[in-house]
Design a protein that fits this description.
The protein is an alpha/beta fold. The protein has 10 helices and 14 strands. The strands form 3 sheets. Strands 6-7-8-3-9-10 form a 6-stranded mixed β-sheet, with helices on both faces. A 4-stranded antiparallel β-sheet has the order 2-1-4-5. It has 2 domains: 203 residues, 3-Layer(aba) Sandwich (Rossmann fold); 80 residues, Metallocarboxypeptidase-like (Alpha-Beta Plaits, 2-Layer Sandwich). The structure holds adenosine-5'-triphosphate (ATP). It comes from Arthrobacter terricola.
Length: 303
């Protein structure tokens, strides 16, 4: 394949009536990555995934999936596994039988059923009725269904939705396993923290546009959060003035000042404070969470 990106979109737009769900989205998903597609409720994640799967048509813009244009979805869809809407599961049939029915319909070898059950760690409960499964097990059955065609690209919409912490950890392990098998995984979440530990590429979506598209490591290392506990109002005002002049916002939390800013701003702040005679400023540098980074990006403070 020519392209190193499993997915590329260029200025993708989708309106629903007067509402713009996807608003000129340009992004990429590198081959072999676990890409986190993150943004708050209503940001346009599901609509983007549905566009990529040929379920809705864009009003403008273009995209390629596995090297083929969106308009040729019949060329790439056989190589894509997706869990976007709740899958049709027969609750009265076992997990295994559900998969066997699907395998027969899709023309996949029956041996795939055992393999995908292993991958999603559902083998032990495969003979139980799907209707009795916990939410986490239902999600894993859905992923197993998406994996039946042994896809190169796996698209999962909110796979961790409603899972407890243990379920989320299990899901992460499964995603890493699939990446190890050479698959590209694109998964969406509105809970930014969920993807912090597993995604190696991030696309952050806000109001239908990408506010960040790049490596997770770069995003996490370029920005820091400074925490300062001022000794008096003079220090408080000085820090606020210097920070605002540099174009960064200051928020107050339990008396401490918090500043989301590029790495290195702590040194500039300290130097400028010293120039005005304040030499005893204590600045703590913290690694912000994805949630804080998202908020900083949305406020227009690009790294
Ligand atoms: N079929 C539709 N008809 C009308 N409006 C729609 C339709 N699908 C989505 N929208 C609107 O488009 C916007 C984006 O929705 P979308 O479901 O893509 O967001 P999302 O990021 O997936 O959100 P969530 O995390 O809540 O699933 C929302 O304002 C939504 O109401």
């Amino acid at each position: 394949m020519m392209s190193m990106n499993a997915i590329e979109t260029h200025g993708l737009i989708k309106h629903f009536g007067k509402r713009t769900a996807v608003d000129g989205l340009t992004m990429s998903v590198p081959e072999g990555s676990i890409t986190g597609f993150i943004g708050p409720n209503g940001a346009g994640k599901t609509t983007t995934l549905r566009l990529l799967l040929g379920l809705v048509r864009p009003d403008a813009g273009s995209a390629t999936v596995l090297g083929h244009s969106l308009t040729e979805f019949e060329r790439y869809l056989p190589r894509v596994g997706a869990l976007v809407e709740a899958p049709a599961v027969y609750p009265g049939l076992s997990g295994r039988t559900n998969l066997e029915v699907l395998a027969r319909l899709g023309g996949h070898p029956r041996s795939r059923v055992g393999e995908v059950l292993e991958t999603v760690e559902l083998s032990d409960r495969a003979r139980d009725r799907a209707g009795t499964y916990s939410l986490g097990m239902k999600q894993r059955l859905g992923v197993a269904m998406a994996l039946l065609p042994d896809p190169e690209l796996l698209i999962l919409d909110e796979p961790a939705n409603g899972l407890d912490p243990l379920g989320i950890i299990g899901m992460r392990g499964m995603l890493r396993l699939l990446r190890g098998q050479g698959k590209t995984i694109l998964l969406s979440s509105h809970l930014l923290g969920e993807l912090e530990h597993v995604a190696d590429w991030l696309v952050m979506l806000h109001e239908g546009k990408s506010v960040y598209c790049g490596t997770a490591r770069e995003l996490l290392s370029q920005r820091v959060e400074l925490v300062i506990e001022p000794e008096d109002d003079l220090q408080r005002e000085l820090v606020t003035r210097i920070t605002n002049a540099a174009g960064h916002a200051v928020t107050t939390e339990e008396g401490a000042l918090r500043i989301a800013c590029p790495a290195g701003f702590d040194k500039a702040l300290d130097r400028q404070a010293r120039e005005t005679g304040v030499t005893n400023l204590t600045i703590r540098v913290e690694q912000p969470s994805l949630e804080q980074l998202f908020l900083a990006l949305v406020k227009g403070q690009r790294p």
